[in-house]
């Protein structure tokens, strides 16, 4: 959206913007407040919600790189929604006069912002008309929105055969990296398996650098893991487990006898990076296991619910 | 597995194959003015085709034994098993000319009917029961862990009982201890648990709760939500208000136990049919080989 900003303008703007931090749960601005700033999200997640006759509805979750606050500024009035920090949020705040200068100096930016804002307003109207609020807030404290990939089991299809667990174990030297238990959201189970977090706390402090992210999504633990357990302790969701492995000892006095030792190593889901699809998903006989991106997944649930409500409404009226 | 719109291509394919088979069968029957027997060229074709489809259906067990093999998604194998299995039964019926024949073929057909019916039964269970399990046992755990969870619930309930009956620790303002609340508007509060009430609670715990929570299958009024609620309501009058949350936790433990029992039962229903279906299938395959040998040899 902001690609047409000139370097000079950006330099000038850079000296006038503020970097503001918000704590989890802190309200950034409320619905009906006067619109006085535009925000760019640097770190964290922001919940956008709106109060309507039936209560409060969550309209969106914004992550790093998103922006908000433009609707109120473009309309020249008050805020149309409440924005709240879900976790530790850092935003770049651009004051209203600088924002107005920007959109006046760069009309294409104004056009793009207005188009997007108009679409958002239409979507919000439709959501409020059809949608019940999803009880997702409870799960945000568990960091689901921090995840880039969740292993989700549709419990309405799952026959609890555990073939996903067996497949995972077969793909990883007999040690499963998923546990078919965890949070439940409606008829979905969020299995205990690495979520490939945006901010992987597990990687902090590894003394040998064996836990790392490759060029793609997955976090892997290399063979030189020394089994200190730091990553397992750091993971807030219990998705890394320590497991004993037999390791051939090629050093010291035992070398002559090639004696194997038992060493602890950390294990976690690596999305079966050497296959096109994770083994658990591939092996599920009932189409119940899926790796999903959480924002899309929850949004799809919301859309499906809205569709069900709209298709039910005519029959209720007729009744 | 849920039989949903993803099965439509398989349904259409199976129906098409069946219609074609019936058309050929009817054509030959009309042309030669007799029902094609099992040993006729057409009968043999149907028999071989049916047997090959049975063999393929039987490979599902092998496929599941090695789930990481990249030879097609297991859910596609499952759909193929379901529909090609059904088709094999229908082809074998055509092969048999709708007769039972001798002793071996009669037994074979009976077993094959058993396999097909048990398979259909299993498919129906897998279609409906997962949803029922999701709704009726929201506290479900991994099936093999139910025993462990049960013991944990028991340990938790023992600790709760000890806390419940502990004397001298009050969460609210203390006042003169009186054991019985005479009316809802009484000015005095029950602040400690007297000996009589403690004894009643311990008795309930030992005679009702312990056998119920510890046993994998026990008949108890605690298993009936309405009766359990009534019982705990009676017990609540024995306790001061500060201790009610602990009693509610005990009730929660009973509810969790009830859900675990329900989960165990539904899990058995979901899987026990395989004890019939799988052995029968292997027996049918074996007897089919014997039948083929005997029929062709003699």
Care to describe what's here?
- The complex is a heterodimer of chains A (319) and B (298).
- Chain A has 319 residues and is α+β, with helices and mostly antiparallel strands.
- Chain A contains 9 helices and 16 strands.
- Chain A is globular, with a radius of gyration of 24 Å.
- Chain B is an all-alpha fold.
- Chains A and B meet through helix 6, strand 10 and helix 8 of A and helix 3, helix 4 and helix 8 of B.
Give a quick precis of the structure.
Chain A is α+β, with helices and mostly antiparallel strands and 319 residues long.
Q: Which series of helices and strands of chain B comes N to C?
A: HHHHHHHHH
Strand line-up across the major sheet of chain A: 1-8-3-6
Uncertain ranges of chain B: 169-190
Separation of the first and last Cα atoms of chain A: 48 Å
Helix/strand-derived class of chain A?
alpha+beta
Number of helices of chain A: 9
Which residue ranges of chain A are poorly predicted, with pLDDT under 50 across at least 5 consecutive positions? 130-134, 313-319
Assign an overall shape of chain B: elongated
Tell me about the biggest sheet of chain B? Answer: none
Gyration radius of chain A, in Å: 24 Å
Quick tags:
heterodimer; A: 319 residues; alpha+beta; 4-stranded antiparallel β-sheet; 16 strands; 27% strand; disordered C terminus; B: 298 residues; mainly alpha; 9 helices; elongated
SSE map:
The complex is a heterodimer of chains A (319) and B (298).
Chain A: H1 7-14, E1 18-22, E2 27-29, E3 37-43, E4 46-52, E5 55-62, E6 67-68, H2 70-75, E7 82-85, E8 89-95, H3 96-105, H4 107-130, H5 137-140, E9 150-154, H6 163-171, E10 179-185, E11 188-192, E12 211-213, E13 219-221, H7 230-234, E14 241-248, E15 260-267, H8 279-283, E16 289-292, H9 294-318
Antiparallel strand pairs in A: 1-8, 2-7, 3-6, 3-8, 4-5, 4-7, 9-11, 9-16, 10-11, 12-13, 14-15
Chain B: H1 8-32, H2 41-65, H3 74-95, H4 103-136, H5 146-165, H6 195-214, H7 225-236, H8 244-272, H9 274-297
């Amino acid at each position: 959206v902001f690609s047409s900003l000139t370097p000079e303008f950006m330099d000038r703007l850079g000296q006038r913007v503020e970097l503001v931090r918000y704590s989890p749960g802190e309200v950034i601005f409320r619905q009906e407040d006067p619109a006085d700033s535009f925000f760019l999200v640097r770190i964290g997640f922001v919940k956008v919600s709106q109060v309507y006759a039936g209560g409060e509805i969550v309209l969106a979750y914004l992550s790093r790189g998103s922006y908000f606050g433009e609707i109120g500024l473009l309309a020249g009035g008050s805020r149309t929604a409440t924005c709240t920090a879900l976790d530790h949020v850092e935003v770049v705040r651009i004051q209203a006069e600088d924002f107005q200068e920007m959109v006046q100096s760069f009309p294409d930016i104004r056009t793009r912002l207005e188009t997007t804002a108009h679409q958002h307003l239409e979507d919000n109207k439709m959501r409020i008309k059809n949608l019940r609020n999803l009880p997702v807030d409870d799960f945000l404290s568990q960091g689901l929105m921090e995840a880039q990939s969740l292993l989700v089991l549709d419990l309405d299809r799952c026959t609890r055969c555990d073939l996903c667990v067996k497949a995972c174990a077969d793909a990883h030297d007999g040690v499963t990296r998923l546990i078919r238990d965890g949070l439940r959201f409606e008829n979905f189970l969020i299995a205990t398996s690495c979520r490939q977090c945006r901010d992987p706390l597990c990687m902090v402090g590894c003394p040998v650098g064996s836990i790392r992210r490759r060029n793609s999504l997955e976090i892997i633990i290399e063979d030189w893991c020394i089994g200190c357990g730091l990553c397992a302790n750091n993971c807030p969701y219990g998705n890394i487990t320590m497991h004993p492995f037999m390791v051939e000892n090629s050093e010291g006095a035992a070398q002559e006898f090639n004696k194997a030792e038992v060493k602890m190593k950390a294990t976690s889901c690596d999305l079966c990076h050497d296959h096109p699809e994770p083994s658990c998903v591939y092996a599920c006989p009932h189409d119940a296991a899926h790796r999903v991106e959480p924002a899309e997944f929850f949004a799809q649930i919301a859309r499906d619910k809205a569709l069900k409500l709209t298709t039910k409404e005519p029959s209720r009226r007729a009744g | 597995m849920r039989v949903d719109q993803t099965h439509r291509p398989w349904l259409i394919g199976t129906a098409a194959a069946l219609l074609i088979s019936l058309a050929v069968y009817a054509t030959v029957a009309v042309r030669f003015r007799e029902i094609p027997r099992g040993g006729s060229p057409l009968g043999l074709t149907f028999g071989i085709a049916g047997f090959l489809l049975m063999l393929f259906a039987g490979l599902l067990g092998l496929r599941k034994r090695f789930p990481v093999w990249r030879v097609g998604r297991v859910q596609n194998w499952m759909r193929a098993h379901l529909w090609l299995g059904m088709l094999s039964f229908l082809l074998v019926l055509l092969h048999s000319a709708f007769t039972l024949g001798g002793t071996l073929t009669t037994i074979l057909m009976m077993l094959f009917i058993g396999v097909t019916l048990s398979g259909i039964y299993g498919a129906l269970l897998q279609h409906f029961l997962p949803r029922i399990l999701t709704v009726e046992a929201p506290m479900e755990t991994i099936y093999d862990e139910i025993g462990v969870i049960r013991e944990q619930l028991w340990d938790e309930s023992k600790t709760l009982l000890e806390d419940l009956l502990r004397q001298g620790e009050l969460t609210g303002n203390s006042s003169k201890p009186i054991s019985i609340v005479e009316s809802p508007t009484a000015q005095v509060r029950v602040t400690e648990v007297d000996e009589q009430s403690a004894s009643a609670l311990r008795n309930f715990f030992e005679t009702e709760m312990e056998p119920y929570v510890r046993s994998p299958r026990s008949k108890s009024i605690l298993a009936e939500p309405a009766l359990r609620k009534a019982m705990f309501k009676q017990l609540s009058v024995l306790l001061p208000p500060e201790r009610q949350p602990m009693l509610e936790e005990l009730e929660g433990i009973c509810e969790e136990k009830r859900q675990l029992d329900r989960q165990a039962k539904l899990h058995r229903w979901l899987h026990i049919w395989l004890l019939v279906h799988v052995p029968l299938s292997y027996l049918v395959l074996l007897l089919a080989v014997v039948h083929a040998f005997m029929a062709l040899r003699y």
